[in-house]
Amino acid sequence: METFKISGDLTFRTAQTVYEELRRLIKKRRPSEIVLDFSAVKRIDSAGTTILNVLERYTDENSVALTITNMPPEVQRTIELFKFEENKKNKKPEELSFINAVGEGAYGLYRHFISFIRLFYEISSFSLYASFFRKKLRRPGEVQRQALEIGVSALPIIILISFLVGFILALQSAAQLRQFGADIYVVDLVVISMVSEMGPLMTAILVAGRSGSAIAAEISSMVISEETDALKVMDIDPIPYLIVPKVYAITFVMPMLTVFSIVFGIFGGLVITVTYLNINFLQFITEAVQAVYFKDIIAAIVKSIVFALLVVITGSYFGFNARGGSVGIGKAATASVVASIFLVIIADSILGLIFYFPH
Amino acid sequence: MKNPIIKIRDLSSGYGERLIIEDISFDIYEGDITVILGGSGSGKTTLLKNILNLLKPKKGSIELYTNTREESAGADIKRDIGVLFQNGALLNSLTVAENIAIPLEQHTSFNKEIIRQIVDLKLHLVNLANAAYYFPSELSGGMKKRASLARALALDPKLLFADEPNAGLDPFTSKSLDNLLLSLREKLGMSMVVVSHEVASIKRIADRVIYLKNGKILFKGTLKKALSSDIEELNNFFL
After folding, report:
1. Which of A132, A225, A312, A331 gives 20 to 30 Å between its CA and that of B142?
2. Are A336 and A214 in contact (CB under 8 A)?
3. CA distance, residue B92 to nearest chain A CA (Å)
4. Could you state, in chain order, the average pLDDT of each consecutive group of 10 residues for chain A (359 residues)?
5. Backbone torsions φ then ψ of A38, nearest 5 degrees
6. Could you tell me where the DSSP H helices lie in chain B?
7. CA A172, A174, A180, A181: dihedral to nearest 10 degrees?
8. Would you call A19 and B114 a contact, using CB atoms and an 8 Å cutoff?
9. Does B35 lie at the interface with A, CB-CB under 8 angstroms?
10. pLDDT digits (tens, 9 = 90+) for A50-99
11. Where are the domains of chain A?
12. Chain A within 8 Å of B113 (Cβ-Cβ)?
């Protein structure tokens, strides 16, 4: 039998030291019984109480009998305050196995897809008819405000990025085409690329990053702070109230932004051809006009409208499905950008096949 | 005679050019539960933020004395203070248990097993034994408040600040929370500064009352004196 006298306080400041010392002594001396004399203990707190519990468990596991003697009444009362029965039901949720996780993930994607289609249908139906036939759903000024927010404020970055993309396209293609004496075709390459692909795609990606994430963040914070619930109990459907003005605004603004993107992308190409390839301005314009068909312009506008709808619906979807406070808002914004870009590229491929594959 | 644990002298503070509290002076005594009350906009939260060093005063001084004579002068004050914020202020990306473990991980060298046990103990204290692995977004308002209190009590602080601890709680939970605060004061000698509007709770727990109006102290004294004061607003409040 070993007797240990603990003196002073058994609190946050001392409990760790006392515990480690006792464990060391138990390991070294291997007694069959330990007596802890508490007569000189002045104060105990939750850390001290916990250390006693842990020590009890440790001695039990090591087949050592533990006895506590001469416990001052105040110390005993504090220990009583912190006494509790361990809750065996309070278990950490188990992690899924790989197969289960894959299955959960696949099913989750399926449910997302169904919910997305449902939301797409609701937004489309409200946008196409409800706002025209139900006056109370209209919000005067909101479409203009959204158009300014989505359109005007995105213009500088779209102009800059598009100019640089056109610049780089021309530079890279010039380096190759020069070898074959085909300098003039740099113009065709830049113009066709910008009109049919890069213009609509770059614009959609930039708008998804700027406005798509903002839509997701706005809607998700409204969901989390129960503002959408407040609308519902006032018999106001959040979709026509919040989303339809954005749909109108982005559908109106996106083709215009795409035109700016195309024009400034071509201008970027012009800078290279005029300075690097000795193709003058008039030659450039003549070749550019000949390279573009009416179908290309229609394809660009159709793409920009489709991309606009994908961006706003994806942002709304992740916004309405956000959970979990401030973390949920961040996740919704990020997920919306990633999903928007993914869907835009898929849509671009499909529309490309529709417009160009038969020929 | 009790020692002061907080001394505030001529404190003025606010936001920008706007003064919210002006020339506030009072003491908080060791082992007391001091309740600060006042109407909306009276400056209670601004006062609390100044004491917690979340807001710099424009004038005046605040002194905290959390060290007893037996403990070293270099003791870390932040370990001796626990704060229960009005809306809980739990970190949403962590479970309840992880939230409560934060001060234990930061300010002690306990291993994971001991920290887990202390966390369990605190959860039982506030009647949230089953909520260890829930996220804050999965809790009701009252449960968030209790989880936040468990975190505030993680290190058995000498000084507990509580901003509206009973708000959002049902009467039974409110009463058991008050009993818990009284037990902590009795068993651990914890001093408390509580901002509250709940009359029943104030009558149960307060030793001293400070009444703020328009950024100034209208009354400071014992609960007994507050209940028999001739200040009309204070009388109306306690009726």
Report:
1. A331
2. no
3. 6
4. 87 88 86 90 91 89 89 89 69 79 91 92 85 67 88 92 96 90 91 95 95 94 85 82 92 95 96 88 92 93 96 95 88 95 96 84
5. -100, 10
6. 44-51, 96-107, 112-125, 141-152, 171-188, 199-205, 223-227, 232-238
7. 180
8. yes
9. no
10. 999 898 888 888 888 989 999 999 899 888 888 776 655 566 777 778 99
11. 2-81, 102-356
12. yes
- With a pLDDT cut of 70, the percent of chain A lying above it is 94
| Cβ <8 Å between A90 and B120 | yes
Provide CB contacts within 8 A for A290, sequence distance 6+.
none
Instruction: State whether residue A50 sits within 8 Å of chain B by CB.
Output: yes
The verdict on ipTM greater than 0.85 is no
Residue of B nearest to A18 (CA): B110
Of the candidate CATH numbers 3.20.20.60, 3.40.50.2300, 3.40.50.1820, 3.30.750.24, the domain formed by A2-81 belongs to 3.30.750.24
Quick check: A7 contacting B, CB < 8 Å?
Answer: no
Residue-level pLDDT at B80: 82
Say if the Cβ atoms of B136 and A323 lie within 8 Å: no
Q: Mark the ranges of chain B whose per-residue pLDDT is less than 70.
A: 66-78
User: What pLDDT does residue B233 have?
Assistant: 81
How far, in Å, are A82, A210, A224, A232, B161 from residue A324 at the CA level?
32, 23, 7, 20, 27
Q: Which A residues in the span 258-297 are in contact with B, Cβ-Cβ below 8 Å?
A: none
CA distance A258 to chain B (A): 39
Q: Given this model, what pLDDT does residue A286 score?
A: 93
Residue B68 at interface with chain A, using a CB cutoff of 8 Å: no
Count how many Cα atoms sit within 13 Å of the Cα of residue A130 in the half-sphere of its side chain: 19
At the second CATH level, the architecture of B1-66+191-239 is 3-Layer(aba) Sandwich (3.40)
pLDDT for position A228 = 87
